[in-house]
Amino acid sequence: MDSGQNVAQLYPEMQDHLLSCESGCLVLLDLFRQEAKANRKYRRRAVRDPFRAISWEVTGFFRGGQLTISPRALSYGTLLLLILVATISAYLAIGWDDGRYYHPPPPLTTLLPTPDGVGLSDGLKAFDACNASSYQNKRAAAQAMQQGNLARADQLLTSATNAPITDTTGCNGAEAAIYREDLHVRQSNHPYEMMVVAFDSGLGNADPHGGTDRHILYAAYTQELIGSFIAQEQYNATQIQTPGAPLLYLVLANTTGVEQGALQIANSVASMTTTANLQTIGLLANNTHPLLGLIGLGPRSLVEVTLPVLCRAGIPLISPTSTGTFIIDILSQTSLYRHCAAGFAFVRFSPDDVSQSLLAASYAYNHLHARNVAIFFDPSNSSSNGSAQAFRGAFSRYQGTRVVAQEAAVATGLLDSNGRPQASQSDLLAELNDALQAKPRPDLIYAPLLTDDVITLAQAIAKLPPNQQPMLMIGGEYVQPAALQGLVQWVRQQQLTLPRIFVSTSTAARASTDGPWPKQFYARFCTSFATPGSFCSGAAALDQGALLFGDGVELVVNGVGPITDATKLPTAKQLLQNISLEKFAGVSSPIALKYWDNVLITSTHVQPVMLGIQPDGSIQIVG
């Protein structure tokens, strides 16, 4: 036996039987002995490895015998096997579903041309390529107009205007709408005066033959065109009812956001006043027409390089998005601007950086109960530096307050996603860490920086424990609501806690019933440009550029007045006087202006607003 005991001694009766039986029993006994030896040599041991347990579960159907498996190995092995089966099943199901319902578009046989770069356009160029369908229709419409097929061009521009309405990425059809309105003005046989709308499409490859990469423009950079178009359309709808009454004709000017582009635009606009035929400079409008002014050229760096050119040409600049106070200092203290040609003036009706900073300091102290703040600013940026100084001065006047840290986020040679200089992320994060180590710890961080730099700070703060997150307040020349809403989505994806973020800005979209102009503006926007199902008068429905440009164009046409005879258009000097006397309820804020120093028309009553980003991603006016 296996124990070493002798069977003959234990069971003598059986031993006697085996010895006395026939030889078959001996043969059978010998077989049993051989089998016993084999079983001892190849005995199956208990399985304690879950992966071996999986192997036995998969192949055991094809094997014989029994096997001892550890309960833990069996449990883990079964769990792993079920997960593997579920994963493979889900992968196959998703692949089957995609193959059933999703059909990728056929590859393009020709490259899609890239948008046009710096230049003027009233229909022959396409600057906004945010929506591909709208962009292609604008290109086709330009070809139709060159061929004289105006009916076809009208249809294509209508399609280009309507295509982005269902676009959930924020694209709009305002560029096509302006081109279509200009086409109607040219066909109306009415005289018309011109106004140049300068905007920033962002940097891109403007190769007319196309390229391997089409530059997708940010929707935020074309929202100014929405406000401009609505003001143009409302004015023309009234004027066209009177035979011979002059209409408004808008010419778009794309600076691409760089100083060289802005300077090129300024020189092109100046040449419009001396060119006998505008078609020689690439426009569809023929002959010459009165030029009422140029609107745009924000932010401050673009304005600074174009002021001397516009001064010599006698062209007024309406620049509500350039809110830096240093522009006023340049114009009032530089002798060059004492000798400008008749008609030049710098017009700004929006709250400047100081007004926004005063609101920020008051709201931080009285509503957020902040007592210790850290300030981040860019000393190389006049607007950022001015905002920081104004906030520091206003906040320090409150009792029991302290500025515990001041960090200089100097813009480097790096460019942000919009082609503008930005601070190094590593430097920003190091400065944030230094500010958070200050004693006492800051309750609030005030950061009048570019949007991308602010996003970097907000993402770093979101990674802190909720009870250690300081509030973040943004100010400065230009804030993009879409980028801030994107931050909320990022926080959700990372499963972090959104810090409390507030924005001090010049204006925000809001439903208004004060006066006919705001009613007309929002009625047109909600029916023609707002995405179906969206709250078209919410604070984030439009950025401040759309509101300010709408009021800017409305301000100029009100200065012209509802005249019925083109020969009675006001002179350049009379137009400035009329503008300075304007007083009406605008969509950005109440408009009331004053004319001083012969070149400045600024607001006498401003109303900056404070926005708060809610946990659900909405942006609301809180002050």
Question: What is this entry, summarized?
Answer:
The chain has 623 residues and is of the alpha/beta class. The protein has helices at residues 7-10, 12-20, 23-41, 50-59, 71-101, 132-146, 150-162, 174-187, 224-239, 259-272, 300-313, 326-333, 353-366, 382-396, 425-436, 451-462, 481-494, 516-528, 544-560, 572-580, and strands at 119-121, 192-199, 247-254, 291-295, 317-318, 346-348, 372-377, 402-408, 411-415, 421-423, 444-447, 471-474, 501-505, 583-585, 590-596, 600-603, 609-613, 619-621.
User: What is the second-level CATH architecture of the domain at 119-123 and 177-347 and 546-603?
Assistant: 3-Layer(aba) Sandwich
**Terminal residue distance:** 96 Å
Helical segment count: 20
Uncertain runs: 106-112, 203-219, 412-419
Name the CATH superfamily assignment of the domain at 119-123 and 177-347 and 546-603: Response regulator
Number of strands: 18
The level of helicity is 40-55%
Structural class: alpha/beta
Shape: elongated
Strand content: 5-15%
CATH class of the domain at 119-123 and 177-347 and 546-603: Alpha Beta
In the CATH scheme, what's the topology name of the domain at 119-123 and 177-347 and 546-603? Answer: Rossmann fold
